Structures are given as C-alpha cells and as structure tokens.
Amino acid sequence: MHPRVSRTLKALIVVLLGLLLTSQIVVIPEVAHITALRNPDVAQLEVPGIIGAVLFLGLVEVTLVCIWFLLSLVQDDRIFRVEAFRYVDVILAALVSAGVLILAAYAVILASRAVSLSLTLLALLGIVVSAALALLVVVLRGLLRKALELEHDLSEVV
Questions:
Q1: Per-residue three-class SS string for the chain
Q2: Counting beta carbons within 10 angstroms of the beta carbon of residue 111, is it exposed (0 to 12), middle (13 to 18) or buried (19 or more)?
Q3: Residue 125 CB: number of other CB atoms within 10 A?
Q4: Which of 108, 99, 15 is CA-nearest to residue 23?
Q5: How far is CA 131 from CA 9, 34, 40, 85, in A?
Q6: CA–CA separation, 122 vs 25, rounded Å?
Q7: pTM for the complete prediction?
Q8: pLDDT tens for residues 82-126?
C-alpha cells in the first residue's frame, strides 16, 4: 500500500473519530431531548435512546481504532503476524455487539409500543448489515490466516 493512501486513511479516521465524539456529546442528547419534547408519549425512551446511540457510536469508534492499528501494521510490513488477529477479532466482536445492540434497542421500542414500519425496517436493515459485515470479517480473517501460513511456509523454503 502506498504510504500516501495509508496517511490519508488515517487522517480520515481522525476526522471520523472527532465527528463521532461530537455526535455522542452534543448531537445525540440534543436530538433525543427535542424528540422527547415533541413526542411526550415516548419521552421515557430519551435516556435509553441516548445510551444506545452513544454505545453504538462507541462500537464504530472501536472499529476505527482497530483499523488504524491494522493500517500501522501494514505500513510497518507486519500485517502477517499473529498480533493482527487481535484487532480483527475486536472488529468482529464490535460488529456482533452492534447487531445485538440494534436488536435490544428494537425490543425496547417494541415494548414501549412506539414501533412503526419504518423503525422495523431500519432495525432489520441494521441487523442484516451488521451480520453481513461480521461474516465478511470472518472471511477476511480466514484469508489473513491463510496468508500468514503461506508466508511462514515461504520463509522456511528460503
């Protein structure tokens, strides 16, 4: 990978982390408060909604940090090492956790009788996307393992 690409990706990760942190601190609480004021029948969901949204974005942040470390391993030409699996496993856990969090949030919304067709479709979309991404990471993890084995075999031949 060209160093400029890696530096650009890292810069974008920093920007994304800043935007996500700002969203967690400012945007989510403000939107939840306005929504609770406009819809008093679902005002009891304000705090659980804030918690769920902040946790969800936290999982995105964890994933971005792991990608940062994987990019660093690529830059240092150490991606085919066992330590890379730690970051891939954390990404996988974050994706599965995101799917579970979406399902839990939908259950809370369903229990409060605030569910609508659009929320149902959005929850279903989130669960399917998180499951698909998790399966993709499993495949990529397998490719990383195979590449590690091949590199090891090649080093024995040389």
A1: CCHHHHHHHHHHHHHHHHHHHHHHHHHHHHHHHHHHHHCHHHHHHHHHHHHHHHHHHHHHHHHHHHHHHHHHHHHCCCCCCCHHHHHHHHHHHHHHHHHHHHHHHHHHHHHCCCCCHHHHHHHHHHHHHHHHHHHHHHHHHHHHHHHHHHHHHHHHHC
A2: exposed
A3: 11
A4: 15
A5: 25, 32, 34, 19
A6: 24
A7: 0.91
A8: 999 999 999 999 999 999 999 999 999 999 988 899 999 999 999
**Among candidates 80, 73, 83, 88, which has minimal Cα distance to 134?**
88
State the angle between helix axes of 117-157 and 83-111 in degrees (0 to 180), rounded to the nearest 10: 170
